[in-house]
Amino acid sequence: METKNDNLSPQQSLDLISSMINQAKGNVGRSSFYFLLWGWLIAFCNFGMYIVLKFTDYEEYAPSVWLLCIPAWAISAMYGRRESKTKMVQTHLDKISMWVWICMAIVITPAWVFGGKINWMMNAIILMPVGAATFLSGIIVRFNPLLVGGIVFWIAGIGCYFVNTTDQYLVGGIAMILGYLVPGYMLRNQKENHA
Amino acid sequence: MLRELDPLLHSQLRLGIMSLLMNAESAEFTYLKEKTNATAGNVSVQLDKLSEAGYISVEKTFNGKKPLTTCRITKKGIKAFEEYVNSLKDYIKK
């Protein structure tokens, strides 16, 4: 790009602004890591809870499977830190997206911590904000599979009000596969195709 | 009467840099250089001009041993950019 060309016509100036704004669009595939990590983990925890509650006599130990979330938080934080170091630009949408997920984490953490007080019937509570965050991410990165994923979580969240505690985990696990993992892999494929 | 276009923004590279920064919370020097396809020297000179005018803030830090220059648009810069775009619209409507 030349610097001396100051004789831009108004139309050229507008074209330049528009082309630079297009250049600054975020990388949609960047967030696939989080969808895949948390998708696999939460699906595993849900199915784990379901199997232990349904087919074994060790139900008092079942909630301990959620302790796997602690290392996952650490991995997410380390990955995020590494990403922010290598990322040359942070767009407004990156910042909004980050805060959407932080808000979601704040909303659902009490359900994890105090789940015992509601007989671990937490999927009905958790899946709704997870759906909202997934849907908003779809809007932010303009990726329709995430919109569908968000809607799947909402349907699953409502469905959880109509099933017993054990079956909630089956519903939650299936919702994770359809709401996180399927769009997560599609997002990753899109990233690889654009690389 | 048509408003005069801000001469500081009515330059291809400076306008390109400001457009990129309008869409970002912050951007590194390397990013601006890559996206504008300009030379490091050219970008550096234009960043100084924009910074002197108070349109952008430039922060120089280190990432390990590697120097890191991070740019952000200021409120003054946003206002100037908006006024520039409004003036452009007036020219096009004319």
Account of the protein in words:
The complex is a heterodimer of chains A (195) and B (94). Chain A is mostly helical and 195 residues long. Chain A has one domain (29-194). In chain A, 74% of the residues lie in helices and 2% in strands. Chain A contains 7 helices and 1 strand; from the N terminus they run H-H-H-E-H-H-H-H. Chain A has helices at 10-23, 32-55, 69-86, 92-113, 123-141, 144-160, 165-194; one strand at residues 89-91. In chain A, helix 5 (123-141) runs parallel beside helix 7. Chain A is elongated, with a radius of gyration of 21 Å. The relative contact order of chain A is 0.15. The mean pLDDT of chain A is 86. Chain B starts with 11 loop residues before the first helix and ends with a helix. The mean pLDDT of chain B is 90. In chain B, strand 2 and strand 3 (66-73) form a beta hairpin. Chain B is α+β, with helices and mostly antiparallel strands and 94 residues long. Chain B has a single domain (13-93), classed as Orthogonal Bundle (Arc Repressor Mutant, subunit A). Chain B contains 4 helices and 3 strands, in the order αβααββα. The longest helix of chain B is centred in the C-terminal third of the chain and has 19 residues, at 75-93. Chain B has helices spanning 12-22, 29-36, 40-52, 75-93; strands at 24-28, 56-63, 66-73. A 3-stranded antiparallel beta sheet of chain B has the order 1-3-2. Chains A and B meet through helix 1, strand 1 and helix 4 of A and helix 1, strand 1, helix 2, helix 3 and helix 4 of B.
Characterize this entry briefly.
The complex is a heterodimer of chains A (195) and B (94). With 195 residues, chain A is mostly helical.
